[in-house]
């Protein structure tokens, strides 16, 4: 089955063509700034400007025409409202014009499903670390459930805000990672794990009061060591609690080599398997939306009746019919 996936939950507009589990093409364009952060209206404008070109490029790279597409899948939740609307609009317009079945999928669950497809893990715990989302998710009793998460901002948003203090532009994660490699002195920072959850707001307030006193490389090093240790701690407890022995790390922050190294060390200690994802499938991408759409459509065999976007749908609210 030839499927067009469309992703637009946040900074990235992406389109992908899959032939069942074969990823034929993946085209993305990410909103960036030199200075300052992500303003929803500006990101939506970006998506409007690139959507047609990206969908066309995905079709051309896959050597397909829109009339070859047998299913359209789009990210329906959760995300930034204005951004979700644009992906939904593209998907609905193409579906109506060409009479193609259409389904909406949950972005967080799509991350987990593409992780299963690409790692070969059957039942992993997923540490999902992106701008807006920081969650430890695993499948239990018929649903994907969140076993730990941030109580305030996502770790990616935290890193971007920290990057803004340092005037690094958006996104800041890669630049912080490069600076952290040159740091060596650990600066004592607040470590905030509450039960199975983490929080970064207090750490950010602390940093904003004292960041000028320290070498930027040591600050980046210390921030990474602190927040990644928090994430790995709650992830380890989720693995133990769920009695699972596979871990994937995904999301933009999941591409960070130090976070991957810490996950790997933790998994080795408890005889679990760890696999990171290739960067282009760890960040927001439409291949995962297409794949999650195939899984859903193969069971229900018809278009979704409700195609309304939802900014806040929780992972565990989604009915998982395909497992
Ligand atoms: Fe994401």
Structural account:
The chain has 323 residues and is of the alpha/beta class. It folds into two domains: 2-110 and 284-317, ATPase, nucleotide binding domain (Nucleotidyltransferase, domain 5, 2-Layer Sandwich); 122-274, 2-Layer Sandwich (Nucleotidyltransferase, domain 5). The protein is 44% helix and 21% strand. It is built from ten helices and twelve strands. The strands form three sheets. The protein has a five-stranded mixed beta sheet with strand order 3-2-1-4-5, with helices on both faces. α1 packs parallel to α2 (81-98), α5 packs across α7 and α7 runs parallel beside α8 (257-269). The site of fe (ii) ion has 6 residues, from α3. Residues 107, 111, 130, 133, 251, 284 line the site of fe (ii) ion.
Q: Quick one: CATH superfamily of the largest domain?
A: ATPase, nucleotide binding domain
Query: The CATH topology of the largest domain is what?
Result: Nucleotidyltransferase, domain 5
Beta fraction of the residues? 15-25%
Q: C-alpha Rg, in Å? A: 19 Å
- Please count the beta strands (DSSP E, at least 2 residues each): 12
Bound molecules: fe (ii) ion
* CATH class category label of the largest domain: Alpha Beta
Helical fraction: 40-55%
Mean pLDDT: 96
Order of helices and strands: EEEHEHEHEEEHHEEHHEHEHH
Low-pLDDT residue intervals, each spanning 5 or more residues: none
The N- to C-terminal Cα distance equals 19 Å
CATH architecture group name of the largest domain: 2-Layer Sandwich
**Number of self-contained structural domains:** 2
Shape: globular
* Structural class by SSE content: alpha/beta
Strand order of the largest sheet: 3-2-1-4-5
């Amino acid at each position: 089955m030839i499927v067009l996936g469309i992703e637009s939950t946040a900074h990235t507009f992406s389109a992908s063509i899959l032939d069942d589990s074969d990823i034929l093409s993946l085209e993305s364009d990410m909103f960036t700034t030199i200075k300052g952060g992500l303003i929803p209206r500006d990101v939506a404008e970006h998506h409007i400007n690139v959507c047609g070109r990206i969908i066309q490029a995905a079709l051309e790279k896959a050597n397909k025409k829109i009339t070859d597409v047998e299913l359209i899948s789009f990210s329906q939740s959760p995300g930034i409202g204005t951004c979700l609307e644009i992906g939904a609009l593209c998907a609905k317009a193409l579906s109506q014009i060409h009479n193609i079945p259409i389904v909406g999928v949950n972005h967080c669950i799509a991350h987990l499903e593409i992780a299963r497809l690409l790692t070969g893990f059957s039942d992993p715990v997923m540490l999902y670390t992106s701008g807006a989302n920081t969650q430890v998710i695993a499948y239990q009793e018929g649903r994907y459930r969140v076993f730990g998460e941030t109580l305030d901002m996502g770790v990616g948003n935290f890193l971007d805000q920290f990057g803004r203090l340092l005037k690094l532009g958006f996104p800041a994660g890669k630049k912080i990672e490069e600076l952290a490699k040159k740091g060596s002195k650990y600066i004592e920072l607040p470590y905030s794990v509450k039960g199975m959850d983490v929080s970064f707001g207090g750490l950010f307030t602390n940093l904003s009061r004292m960041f000028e006193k320290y070498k930027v490389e040591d600050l980046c090093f210390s921030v990474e060591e602190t927040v990644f240790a928090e994430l790995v701690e709650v992830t380890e407890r989720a693995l133990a609690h769920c009695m699972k022995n596979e871990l994937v790390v995904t999301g933009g922050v999941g591409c960070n080599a130090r976070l991957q190294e810490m996950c790997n060390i933790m998994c080795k200690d408890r005889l679990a398997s760890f696999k990171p994802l290739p960067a282009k499938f760890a960040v927001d991408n439409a291949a995962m939306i297409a794949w999650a759409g195939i899984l859903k459509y193969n069971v229900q065999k018809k278009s979704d009746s409700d195609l309304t976007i939802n900014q806040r749908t929780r992972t565990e609210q989604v009915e998982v019919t395909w497992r």
